[in-house]
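RECORD TYPE: inverse folding
INPUT: structure tokens
STRUCTURE:
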């Protein structure tokens, strides 16, 4: 556990206790600034080992950051200051905490705490985005009274919430299973330079693949065109059109345990693909479209029994849940994740309802990774005990 120099450092002691209460062994690394907020001896008393503060401390034999990074199963930085996150995002390793972070290749959770303006500053937002892209998880900050007397976003999450996030980061409940996720929109070509597309960004599918891999699954991501980076540990297959996506999925469907169809697959494609760029003409022009295969319904019809577990998405602009329930029956899938178009596109959060034959669970607005975890929890419960 890393403790950096913010007011919330006093709550780090409670987090140590909470992690120990849950049966974990804890060792603490503090920044120099953190020692001004809370005495190292507090952590010595709680953990039985003096916290590491100084990389150059002669008491440590050899490289203490390497030793700590090899010892730990997970790292949590709580509180995480703007300064320490900036250093971590930049790969700077100028003290024991940041050197250990750079040496550590397991799951990392940051629990930021700072004044609202520091949290909202573009530099902090950039660093948080970079750390997320590097695979780190975040918990908080939450809204409430701040040490400055202001009220706003910036409070460190509560110790039990952080402890749960640390435990979630080391979960391997999908180990041994293969999860196929489709993501993004499709591009249906009209001519060499034009296509019909949609506004899906792929974020939900990428979050699903990322979380599946983080939970130990072999995650296969069949992705339409997108600008997103491949999440770590994910096997990515790039496709362009609905037909290419169908071919990639049919090739793999027999060897997977679950399929989550988060892609926004075009229902139609142009009847003809022009080999040359279409010229403009005077007056209106019409375009003939033909139906694309319904990949999800095809999987539902192919499947015997309930293997692989099949999850579809329903993006609607009206009657969201009734439409999802109709889709569930019509396409013979196990779960339909229903969302409203205005809640879903391009954002990093989503508000969905999980609709199954015998249940309906409305989730609050959550980060897409947390939505992914809720979907994967549902899927995991339908897979055999490993
Ligand atoms: C009283 C006081 C409270 C502070 N609280 C915070 C805080 O909550 N969050 C934060 O990011 N920085 C806070 N800072 C600023 C950091 O202590 C400062 O950026 C420091 O360089 C952080 O070093 P570290 O990241 O190496 O621990 C505070 C500073 C002072 C003097």
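DESIGNED SEQUENCE:
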């Amino acid at each position: 556990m890393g403790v950096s120099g913010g007011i919330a450092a006093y709550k780090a002691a409670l987090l140590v206790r909470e992690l120990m209460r849950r049966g974990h062994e804890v060792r603490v690394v503090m920044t120099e600034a953190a020692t001004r907020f809370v005495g190292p001896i507090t952590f010595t008393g709680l953990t039985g080992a003096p916290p590491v503060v100084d990389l150059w401390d002669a008491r440590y034999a050899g490289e203490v950051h390497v030793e700590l990074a090899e010892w730990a199963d997970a790292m949590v930085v709580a509180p995480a200051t703007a300064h320490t996150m900036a250093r971590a995002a930049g790969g700077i390793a100028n003290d024991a905490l940041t050197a250990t972070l750079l040496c550590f290749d397991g799951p990392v959770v940051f629990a930021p705490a700072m004044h609202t303006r520091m949290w909202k500053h573009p530099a902090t937002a950039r660093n948080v985005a970079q750390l997320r892209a590097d695979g780190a998880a975040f918990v908080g900050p939450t809204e409430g009274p701040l040490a400055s007397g202001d009220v706003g976003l910036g409070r460190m999450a509560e110790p039990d919430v952080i402890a749960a996030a640390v435990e979630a980061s080391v979960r391997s409940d999908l180990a041994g299973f293969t999860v196929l996720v489709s993501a993004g929109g499709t591009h249906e070509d009209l001519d060499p330079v034009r296509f019909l597309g949609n506004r899906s960004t792929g974020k939900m599918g990428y979050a699903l693949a990322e979380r599946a891999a983080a939970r130990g699954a072999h995650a296969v991501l069949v992705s339409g065109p997108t600008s997103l980076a491949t999440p770590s540990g994910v096997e990515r297959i790039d496709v362009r059109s609905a037909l290419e996506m169908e071919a990639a999925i049919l090739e793999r469907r027999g060897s997977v345990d679950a399929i989550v169809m988060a892609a926004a697959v075009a229902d139609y494609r142009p009847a003809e693909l022009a080999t040359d760029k279409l010229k403009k003409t005077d007056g209106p022009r019409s375009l003939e479209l033909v139906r694309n295969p319904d990949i999800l319904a095809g999987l539902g019809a192919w499947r015997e029994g309930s293997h692989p577990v099949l999850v579809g998405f329903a993006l609607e602009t009206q009657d969201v849940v009734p439409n999802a329930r109709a889709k569930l029956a019509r396409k013979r899938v196990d779960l339909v994740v229903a969302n409203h178009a205005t809640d879903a596109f391009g954002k990093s959060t989503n508000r969905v309802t999980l609709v199954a034959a015998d249940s309906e669970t409305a989730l609050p607005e959550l980060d897409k990774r947390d939505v992914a975890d809720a979907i994967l929890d549902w899927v995991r419960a339908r897979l055999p005990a490993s």
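NOTES: The pocket of flavin mononucleotide is lined by residues 4-8, 31, 33-34, 81-84, 113-114, 118 (CB under 6 Å).
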